[in-house]
Design a protein that fits this description.
This protein has one domain: 3-Layer(aba) Sandwich (Glutaredoxin), CATH 3.40.30.10. It is an alpha/beta fold. The chain is built from five helices and seven strands, in the order H-E-E-E-H-E-H-E-H-E-E-H. Strand 6 and strand 7 form a beta hairpin. The longest helix is centred in the first third of the chain and has 27 residues.
């Protein structure tokens, strides 16, 4: 193995590392806003000093349909001072209208993104460092933007509210 071989191997390794570093950013920017389909990222919805609860759901998820009002109630109770909710639909481009109907049916007024099912699963796995199980799934980011909690599967909003309160040093 000569010098040129080592140089090519090092370049290849550096390129592979660069791709791995950029991949999570690419995943996060392939989402679309549900209302106008403009590009968006969950990162766009983080407010410094506030918690962000990201709920990944689907329009045909029975639990998501049952719990949608609780996510809405939480958002209205907290969004003006300490926490907000962001929905991320995994319905994909084939089911945009179903996702929009879900939002209308449940009166959801907080922001929602939509992505292809594999994209949403990859995003969850990259952020949570745990396997994707299904909907609903949650990522809870702290006031500094750090991932503070993850949950694959349903969790009552009261538990998330208590978690945030305990981490914020206040009672609810």
């Amino acid at each position: 193995m000569g010098i040129p071989d080592i140089t090519y191997r090092i370049r290849g390794l550096l390129l592979a590392c660069l791709v791995l570093l950029v991949q999570p950013l690419a995943l996060a920017t392939d989402f679309r806003q549900l209302d106008d389909l403009s590009p968006a990222s969950p990162e766009d919805y983080r407010t410094p000093g506030q918690w962000l609860v990201v709920v990944m759901w689907a329009s045909d998820c029975p639990v998501c349909n049952l719990e949608a009002h609780a996510y809405q109630d939480f958002h209205f109770a907290h969004s003006d001072h300490d926490a907000s909710v962001l929905g991320v639909f995994l319905d994909g481009s084939a089911r945009i209208e179903e996702a929009r109907a879900f939002v209308r049916r449940h009166g959801v007024e907080y922001p929602n993104l939509i992505g292809e099912p594999a994209l949403v699963a990859e995003f969850y796995m990259a952020e949570a460092a745990t396997p994707w199980v299904g909907t609903p799934s949650f990522l809870v980011y702290g006031p500094e933007g750090d991932l503070a909690a993850k949950q694959a599967g349903a969790v009552p909003m009261e538990i998330i509210e208590r978690f945030i309160a305990s981490r914020s040093g206040r009672s609810i």
